[in-house]
Amino acid sequence: MKDNPIEIIAPRVERELLPFVRRPARYIGGEVNQVRKDLSRCRLRVALCFPDVYEIGMSNTGMPILYHILNEMDGVAAERVFAPWTDAEEILRRKQIPLFSLESKAALGGFDVIGFGLTNELCYTSVLNILDLAGLNVRRNHRRDEDPLVIAGGGMANCCEPMAEFIDLFVLGDGEQAVTELVDLLLEAKATGWDKRRTLLEAARRFEWAYVPQFYEFKYDGTRPTSFRATEPGLRTRFTNAVVEDFENAPAPARPIVPFVEAVHERVSIEIMRGCPGRCRFCQASYCRRPIRSRSVERVLELAQTAYHASGFDTVSLLSLSTADYPQLEELVARLQEYFEGRHVGLSIPSLRVDQQLHLVPRLFTSVRKSGLTIAVEAAGERLRQIINKPLKDSDLFAAVEEAYRAGWEKLKLYFMVGLPGETLDDVKDIVGLCHRLATLRRRVDGKTGSINIAVSWFVPKPHTPFGWLPQRPREYFEQARRIIIDEKLRLRAKFLVFKFHEINQSILEAAMGRGDRRCADTIEAAWRLGARFDLWDDCFNYAIWREAFAQAGIDLEAAAQQSFATDAVLPWEHLGGPDKTYLLTHYNNAKGVATLPQETDPPAPIRQSI
Question: Which of 58, 124, 260, 416 is the most exposed place for a label (fewest CB within 10 A)?
């Protein structure tokens, strides 16, 4: 690996960009608690890129951890890069200003490593856009040896084949220990003069969590892969997620950066537990983020206090996949309230898995602000919850909500998913009835009706889950379900129920891309070149572009979303750090014991040319 010259372009940014964009604070850096090192004196320079705008990226919990770890290392610098909004992109391209880091205003092409966090299938075109704005070829095999090494991690690394033609190396699993091991390797590579290929090959040989796509290939029979093999001798063909065993002492940012632009979440965020004891059969994270580990009450309290005094944020958020399952939740909340109540700092918990314990949670938060309690219910009936392995009795749900009303909550937010395996249209209609009963339950407490916001998403079969073999429902089913919900709300005259529906087209694209193989690269690049940007944003997402991109590859997008997989098929993601297939099939067969699911002998949905 070679040292590239660092180009500081701060004067150009200040003169030619900032005066002409709508939100210049997205691009200036210099916030409280940022870390800025002299890049010219650092042996390794890492650009941490988040493929969305500043306000979204600054709310991400993964980037601050890596930022903290890397900048604690001698001779290593990490700086932040976010996707420029459309107005800034137009100026950067027109004036030929390279994309730059916030801390030093250094052109991205001069860094040794460009690292991306992949959080969702719909961020892929933003990754390509960032690479292109940095002056790099988006395809890994067209980049030069002296170009930065492009690395990606995050949840989508476990199903990364659609991005395999663009990324040099994927980090699977937890990043804390993996990043330090990888940095040691990269410093060794620079000291000994290894070229990029030698560096990547050594990473592939040394680390079980490192997937380097250029050393692997698939064989295909028509539309489906039939085999996966290494093209270099001695390389593994199945990868294991990196795991932080000592989560108690795992690095955590104690001085969060205070954003200049209002972020989606401006709060002290403390991850109290990693992993989830539940096994919801639609949830990729619950199967890939193992084992369950938690921090002690003392450690969480220490992190919360330090981060609060360093930032002044007025909310402490307790993060995990299932916060209600934290073993010392009652003690933790009591200790946090004791310290923060007099400082007018609120406590926040994410959406809660509903079980017998949930009725305790509202009571625990009696003395803090009660803007709303969020519960992930997912399905309206107990039969459907049994299919998805979310054991919940209505009695427990009603007890929890009544306790919340008695503790002072006036609003609830509920999450439901429509299109689940085994679901009927009666199950869809029952969502409205259940929410209506939960809202009117408040009348027992104070004679008023509760206010409930309901978020409805559309089921997307995910890799590494028991439902990953199944097709997504057709668009017509989702549209019919939405009409049923709206009509039932009108029939009940339930103005106190506010439904918000996820964009159906985005869910279809997620299903088509999420279980794709590396041949999807042509489609992703075509969509990007046609103008796809910020596909997670409703006002930017253009479904017609994606239909055209799939059509150019001879693929019908919606048929791709509805494809099913035989249980003995070679899956494009099965080598990428998930649980063993036999374990997932046990869950799959258990679900079949409750409901009629598509059989593994069903032929896949046809992949046909769009008209």
Answer: 260
Q: Please report how many Cα atoms fall inside a 13 Å half-sphere around the Cα of residue 207, on the Cβ side.
A: 30
Distance of CA 479 to the CA centre of its chain: 26
Contact 324, 355 (CB under 8 A): yes
pLDDT of 236 over the 60 cut: yes
Mean pLDDT of the chain: 92
Q: Where are the strands (E) in 296-379, listed by range?
A: 315-319, 346-348, 352-353, 373-378
Length of the chain: 611
Whole-angstrom Cα distance, residue 457 to residue 389? 18
Band of the pLDDT at 244, cuts 50, 70, 90? Answer: very high
Q: Residue 233: count other Cβ atoms within 10 Å of its Cβ.
A: 5
Percent of the chain scoring above 90 in pLDDT: 81
Torsion angle of alpha carbons 567, 568, 572, 578, nearest 10°?
70
Task: Find out whether 411 and 369 touch, Cβ atoms under 8 Å.
Answer: no
- Quick one: which H or E segment has residue 123? none
pLDDT per residue as tens digits for the range 134-162 = 999 999 999 999 999 999 999 999 999 99
* Complete domains list, the chain, with CATH: 10-230 (3.40.50.280), 267-350 (3.30.750.210)
Distance in angstroms (rounded) separating the CA atoms of residues 126 and 108: 15
Query: What type of residue sits at position 20?
Result: F
Query: Is residue 363 predicted with pLDDT exceeding 70?
Result: no
DSSP 106: B
**What does the alpha-carbon distance between residue 564 and residue 559 come to, in Å, rounded to a whole number?**
10
Q: Are 121 and 514 in contact (CB under 8 A)?
A: yes
Distances (CA, A) of 441 to 311, 406, 456, 557: 40, 11, 21, 44
- Residue 390 near residue 417, CB atoms below 8 Å: no
Residue 601 has pLDDT above 50, yes or no: no
Structure token pair of residue 183: 């940095």
Pair 340, 347: CB distance under 8 Å: yes
Residues 6 or more apart in contact with residue 447 via CB below 8 angstroms: none
Q: How far is CA 170 from CA 50, 174, 182, 212, 239, in A?
A: 15, 12, 11, 6, 11
For 321-343, give the DSSP string.
S-GGG-TTHHHHHHHHHHHHGGG
- Residue 241 to residue 279: CA distance in whole angstroms: 18
Cα within 13 Å of Cα(443), Cβ side = 7
The burial class, CB within 10 Å (0-12 / 13-18 / 19+), for 234 is exposed
What percent of the chain has pLDDT above 70? 94
Cα separation, 100 vs 6, whole angstroms: 11
DSSP-based three-state secondary structure for 81: strand
Q: Which residue has the tokens 């046909």?
A: 608
- Per-position b or e across 183-216, b if 16+ CB within 10 A of its CB: bebbbebbeeebebeebbbbbbeebebbbbbbeb
**Between 521-529 and 543-552, two packed helices, what is the crossing angle to 10 degrees?**
130
For 555, counting Cβ atoms within 10 Å of its Cβ (0-12 exposed, 13-18 middle, 19+ buried), the class is buried
